């Protein structure tokens, strides 16, 4: 396919007839430019109690949207910065061209979209054939010689299945039937499907790599790559998977959708990343091997022969889309993919643009001050390059990998939600593109919980534009396109793998409403027996106050009314000073801040957009008691993890998204030196729609009692001897 078909690339102004200026640039052009010398790190820090604390980048697109919620009344100190979107632009512009990469664009647009022209023909699926000496070729021949093995391959079974219109109609109209199963490591699983004939999958206690239908190189490379997670003495029958990986991969390999809400950056995050990289690469290698093999067959057939047996492609080439929050995650994924393709030290694969990739996705260890004290989970999540605005195409062909491949020449796309949002664009924009999402066969959304802290709208926007019929043909050979793609049934074949650190209604909604896999869905649904309240070490009475709401849409207003009518009057007295109000939603924070201003209450406030100097002032005023109330957003705590001193009274306006934040905030009270003799209080607002969050804090048994009880107030005490 021609280079001009890649609408995600920006061509030189000297070639106006093929100029492709992406919506990425258009959005950046609308951003308010920031002087180079200004950054949060350069704020006046003379009043800071924690000098040298680094600032974490925010989702610049999310900043624009939530910043407008206040109707223009946002304080000067709380104006969302726009510089994050262009923080790497000038550095990119100053770099020299490398590896034949065409990076020409209009400098006024700020950020460069890369197009690798040099390696285009080398990585074209249409013009290449199987290499005789390649291990891939042998694997393909081996499969062809054994029709039984070929037909039992999960990839072939899934992609070659021809759905009937009646089945498609059933999936669109009939409710899903579900059943439960308990697995040794994953725990409680819920299997659901619209097609009744699919049975529950049973856990395999022992897995032989040779029975997993891995493509040839992966059989030998996977055990070596995954060795770091395995115990020194492993079972002979299962030498290459951890118990968690084995059960996850068994589900992935059946091409069912999977939702796993127990991903932990500290414990199992890298295990999971390796497992889904193995599955994605296995899928891509099989799909590409099938195309290359059919290329040879078509080349050898007699002229004029019309054969419909070679339908082996989608309408566009990208097959796998990986959504990750930070550049560091993309860096680790690419390293895993390279390791899985390298059979040994002597057979290194050729990786195009590797040096440039390391420069842009890597990080300098010296950038982070070594004296910062943060929780372990914070260090794990925010390790490396935490820029959240990126996308990169990866093409894989036999022994070579091409980074920065144009999207329409890529097999795998790795991107952040913001990176996808800026190329998909919005309705009415001239320069937007989402055709490359039309034939995605595996969608992997990793660390979904972090997108709740960035901008969840970007995820929803992506889900609305995936697996749609493309607006342009992009040079595709329609005689090679699968019927499922031509029938616009791609979404019924797409496998979605969703990994999160928590259960959340918004994440559940994506899994339930945007996943249509004909094979069905598998969701891990373990209930928390002990809540995070058990981690509170200070002696503290926790008063949980239930508010009534008619439906989910009215709960926001009901919560606000309940707070100002029932809760706030109890804290207006000067004796209830040092009151911190924890607010998970930025919109609720804006609403409360405006109400406090209107009522002329003595308060200060900190949100994720507050400048560092203003944060220091607010913390000092609150500690000294000069301000009675402190409004405090969850996203600020997520990105900064400052210890707020001086808390005597704590109000959770809503239960925290991350259950461990509950214990962290409560335990901040012990940081107050003069608070030993004070009477500390903690009040929590909840409704029946907060069942998942409530269970994560107090445990499932208490949650059931609290939701069923007619009492609206429940008291628990922690830290008692």
From TrEMBL:
SUPFAM superfamilies: P-loop containing nucleoside triphosphate hydrolases (SSF52540). Belongs to the UTP25 family. Residues 255-522 form the UTP25 NTP hydrolase-like domain. PANTHER family: ORF PROTEIN-RELATED (PTHR12933), U3 SMALL NUCLEOLAR RNA-ASSOCIATED PROTEIN 25 HOMOLOG (PTHR12933:SF0). Its main location: nucleus. One of its GO terms (cellular component) is small-subunit processome. Component of the ribosomal small subunit processome for the biogenesis of ribosomes, functions in pre-ribosomal RNA (pre-rRNA) processing. Essential for embryonic development in part through the regulation of p53 pathway. Controls the expansion growth of digestive organs and liver. Also involved in the sympathetic neuronal development. Mediates, with CAPN3, the proteasome-independent degradation of p53/TP53. This is U3 small nucleolar RNA-associated protein 25 homolog. Residues 1-10, 297-312 have a biased composition (Basic and acidic residues). It is found in: Nucleus, Nucleolus. It comes from Phalacrocorax carbo (Great cormorant). Residues 37-87 have a biased composition (Acidic residues). Residues 532-716 form the UTP25 C-terminal domain. Residues 1-111, 132-157, 293-312 are annotated as: Disordered.
């Amino acid at each position: 396919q021609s280079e001009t078909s890649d609408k995600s690339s920006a061509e030189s102004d000297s070639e106006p007839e093929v100029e492709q200026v992406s919506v990425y640039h258009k959005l950046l052009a609308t951003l308010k430019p920031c002087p180079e010398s200004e950054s949060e790190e350069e704020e006046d820090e003379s009043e800071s109690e924690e000098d040298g604390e680094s600032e974490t980048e925010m989702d610049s697109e999310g900043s624009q949207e939530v910043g407008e919620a206040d109707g223009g009344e946002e304080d000067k100190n709380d104006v969302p910065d726009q510089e994050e979107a262009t923080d790497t632009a000038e550095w990119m512009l100053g770099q020299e061209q490398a590896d034949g990469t065409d990076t020409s664009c209009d400098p006024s647009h700020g950020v460069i979209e890369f197009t690798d022209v040099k390696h285009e023909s080398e990585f074209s699926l249409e013009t290449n054939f199987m290499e005789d000496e390649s291990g891939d070729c042998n694997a393909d021949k081996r499969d062809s010689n054994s029709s039984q093995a070929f037909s039992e391959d999960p990839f072939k079974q899934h992609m070659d299945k021809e759905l009937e219109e009646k089945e498609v109609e059933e999936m669109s109209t009939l409710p899903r039937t579900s059943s439960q199963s308990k697995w040794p490591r994953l725990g409680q699983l819920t299997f659901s499907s619209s097609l009744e004939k699919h049975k529950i999958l049973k856990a395999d206690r022992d897995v032989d790599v040779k029975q997993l239908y891995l493509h040839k190189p992966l059989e030998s490379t996977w055990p070596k790559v995954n060795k770091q997670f395995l115990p020194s003495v492993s079972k002979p029958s299962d030498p290459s998977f951890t118990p968690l990986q084995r059960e996850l991969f068994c589900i992935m390999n059946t091409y069912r959708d999977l939702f796993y809400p127990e991903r932990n950056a500290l414990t199992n995050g890298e295990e999971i990343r390796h497992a889904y990289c193995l599955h994605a690469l296995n899928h891509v290698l099989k799909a590409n091997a099938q195309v290359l093999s059919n290329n040879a067959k078509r080349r050898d057939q007699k002229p004029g022969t019309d054969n419909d047996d070679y339908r082996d492609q989608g309408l566009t080439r990208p097959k796998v889309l990986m959504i990750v929050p930070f550049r560091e995650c993309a860096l680790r994924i690419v390293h895993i993919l390279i390791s899985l393709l390298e059979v040994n030290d002597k057979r290194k694969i050729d990786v195009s643009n590797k040096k440039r990739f390391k420069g842009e996705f890597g990080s300098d260890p010296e950038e982070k001050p070594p004296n910062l004290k943060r929780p372990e989970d914070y260090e794990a999540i925010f390790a490396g390059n935490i820029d959240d605005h990126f996308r990169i195409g990866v093409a894989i062909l036999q022994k070579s990998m091409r980074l920065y491949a144009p999207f329409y020449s890529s097999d795998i796309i790795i991107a952040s939600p913001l990176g996808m949002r800026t190329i998909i664009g919005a309705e009415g924009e001239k320069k937007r593109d989402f055709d490359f999402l039309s034939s995605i066969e595996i969608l992997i959304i990793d660390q979904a919980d972090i997108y709740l802290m960035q901008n969840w709208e970007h995820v929803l926007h992506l889900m609305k534009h995936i697996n749609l019929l493309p607006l342009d043909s992009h040079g595709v050979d329609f005689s090679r396109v699968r019927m499922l793609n031509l029938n616009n049934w791609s979404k019924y074949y797409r496998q979605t793998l969703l990994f999160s650190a928590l259960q959340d209604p918004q994440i559940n909604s994506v899994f339930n409403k945007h996943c249509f896999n004909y094979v069905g869905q598998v969701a891990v649904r373990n209930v928390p027996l002990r809540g995070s309240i058990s981690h509170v070490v200070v002696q503290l009475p926790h008063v949980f106050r239930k508010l009534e709401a008619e439906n989910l849409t009215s709960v926001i207003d009901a919560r606000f009314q309940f707070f100002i009518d029932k809760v706030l009057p109890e804290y207006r007295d000067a004796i209830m000073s040092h009151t911190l109000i924890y607010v998970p939603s930025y919109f609720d924070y804006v609403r409360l801040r405006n109400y406090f201003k209107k009522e002329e209450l003595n308060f200060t406030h900190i949100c994720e957009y507050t400048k560092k100097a203003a944060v220091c002032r607010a913390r000092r005023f609150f500690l000294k008691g000069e301000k009675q109330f402190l409004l405090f957003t969850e996203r600020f705590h997520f990105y900064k993890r400052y210890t707020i001193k001086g808390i005597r009274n704590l109000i959770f306006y809503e239960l925290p998204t991350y259950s461990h934040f509950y214990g962290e905030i409560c335990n901040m009270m012990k940081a107050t030196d003069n608070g030993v003799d004070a009477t500390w209080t903690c009040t929590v607002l909840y409704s029946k729609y907060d069942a998942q969050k409530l269970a994560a804090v107090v445990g499932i048994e208490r949650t059931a009692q609290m939701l069923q009880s007619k009492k609206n107030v429940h008291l628990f005490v922690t830290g008692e001897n």
